[in-house]
Amino acid sequence: MTLPVLYSFRRCPYAMRARMALILTSHTCELREILLTDKPDSMLKISPKGTVPVLQLEDRIIDESMDVIKWALRSGSEKMHILSEDEEAMSDSLIQLFDSKFKYHLDRYKYSSRYQSIKEEHQEKCLEILNNLEQKIFNQPWIFGKLVSLLDISILPFIRQCKIANPEWFKSQKFNRVISLLEHFESSELFNKAMEEFELWDPKKPKVLIFPS
Predict the structure, then answer these.
(1) Of the candidates 178, 173, 154, 164, which has an alpha carbon nearest to the alpha carbon of residue 81?
(2) What span, in angstroms and rounded, lies between the C-alpha atoms of 183 and 211?
């Protein structure tokens, strides 16, 4: 059986959460690590929008991270928290919030020169959303308790990006549960596996790299 092919960029939060879903559901694929500044023609041919992740299956192409996650989760995972109806509604709402408003303000906070934006205004908007999340966390070490959930893997890569933009500011805030959650995430085996470094895929000298290794 031909393995699925995953085009990925290690530091991209969208690609990161897709890789975590594959790890948690024990899916194996051929990993093609790329640079977003040098996208291979083979990827652009199957997904012209040129973003990662792109998962190439035998019968179709999946090129949105949440769709990759949904595909992976069809087989279930004993390693993941099973959402109750209320938790699923909360997860859907927060994932949509982080994928839209949080990501919008995060980009303009982190890359204010590129967007010609007022950094502090967008930092404040990120703060509002993180303070909102703080009020919804009642468990440890993950949002819903002992096991990682769809919500955790979907939003934590973006929260990590917010911390990276200004670590001192981030750690000085009062959202202590969010900080604790992120620290647990960054020290987890799941994060370390997802962030394992692979050599760049060279279409002229292709080498099959298996993920997870």
Answers:
(1) 154
(2) 24
What is the sign, positive or negative, of the torsion defined by CA atoms of 24, 52, 129, 111? positive
Q: What is the pLDDT of residues 81-130, one digit of tens each?
A: 999 999 999 999 999 999 999 999 999 999 999 999 999 999 999 999 99
Give the chain's length. Answer: 213
Distance CA 62, CA 212 (A): 19
Nearest C-alpha neighbor of 97 from the set 124, 125, 129, 69: 129
Report which of 6, 17, 8, 34 is spatially closest to residue 160, judged by C-alpha positions.
17
Q: Mind listing the pLDDT tens digit for each residue in 167-209?
A: 999 999 999 999 999 999 999 999 999 999 999 999 999 899 9
**Residue 95, phi then psi, degrees to nearest 5:** -60, -45
Give the residues across from 29 on adjacent strands.
211
Number of C-beta neighbours around residue 192 at 10 A: 10
The reply to whether omega before 53 is within 30° of 0 (cis) is: yes
Question: Model-level pTM?
Answer: 0.96
Dihedral of CA atoms 117, 121, 125, 131 in degrees, nearest 10, equals 140
Domains of the chain: 5-78+192-211 (3.40.30.10), 85-189 (1.20.1050.10)
Task: Say if CB 197 and CB 19 are below 8 A apart.
Answer: no
